[in-house]
Amino acid sequence: MQRSIFLLIAAISVAGIAWLVARNQAPAPEPTVLPPPVNSTAAPQPTATAIDAPATNDTADGPASISETAEDQPPAEPLPALTESDGFIAAALGTVIEQPALRELFNLDQLARRLVVAIDSLPRARMPQQLRLIEPPSARFQIAIRDGETFIADTNAARYERHVALIEAADVTQVVALYRRLYPLLQQGYAGIAPPNASFHQRVLEALDDLLAAAPVAEPVRLVQPKVFYEFADPEVQARSYGQRLLARIGTANTARIKPKLQELRAALR
Q1: What residues contact residue 79 under an 8 Å CB cut-off, 6+ apart?
Q2: Could you say which of 4, 89, 205, 234 would form a disulfide bridge with 111 (CB–CB 3.0 to 4.6 Å)?
Q3: Residue 12 per-residue DSSP state
Q4: Phi, psi torsion values for 258, nearest 5 degrees
Q5: Nearest 10 degrees: CA dihedral of 14, 19, 20, 25?
Q6: Residue 261 to residue 247: CA distance in whole angstroms
Q7: Nearest Cα to 90, choosing from 160, 204, 182?
Q8: What are the pLDDT digits (tens) for 59-107?
Q9: CA angle at residue 62 from 56 to 66, to 5 degrees?
Q10: 3-class secondary structure, 266
Q11: Closest CA to 243 of 12, 28, 2
Q12: Phi, psi at residue 61, to the nearest 5°?
């Protein structure tokens, strides 16, 4: 997930990890098998305002660690109501993500909701596919059959090149500035799916920590298909969070390219 894990961080890394919310639970398509290698009406939303949080504690208005005083920056234009924020958020994302990538890779309706659901889902078991933020790669998921067993093909990692490159190119300073600007809208969106008084910023940090804690998965990665979906044959990997399974799916080389950006983002948000 970002300019992956945005996006915001979601932009995350999405900008970030953004791609990170590519389809992980999709029905198994007819895969490309490769030969073995030679070796109801909502109530009106209040208009949000820019963050001006205390310097010591996180609040519903925003994370204290990235707050700034009014003297540090010119006054920002008022944020739109949550229900009317799609155009505003898309334009803001367009300042850190090139327009072609923004239009082709992102679902641009219900943006605030998709952003918070994407981040909230990363440490969970699964992601609601009807609210996914990032479109999955267009190329088919590739498997290899070896001695009667199914593995993720070595060539499958190339499917994610555009998403991974987007994350690598992300300017964390710009991403954090965007996150801070949009935070009131994101907190409002998160309030619709989270327990009372829950902090979206805290959830962002939890999502990043979970991704960074993911242990490498030995390759080639063996799969099983008990029903419709492919699953990891290793029960420990299959039991991991949605975000950690995504890292296993994209491969160790891509994960190694993404993690430094996630670490940089985590340090900036602390």
Answers
A1: 47, 48, 49, 50, 85, 88, 182, 184, 185
A2: 89
A3: T
A4: -85, -40
A5: 150
A6: 14
A7: 182
A8: 555 565 554 433 455 566 799 999 999 999 999 998 888 888 888 888 9
A9: 65
A10: helix
A11: 12
A12: -80, -20
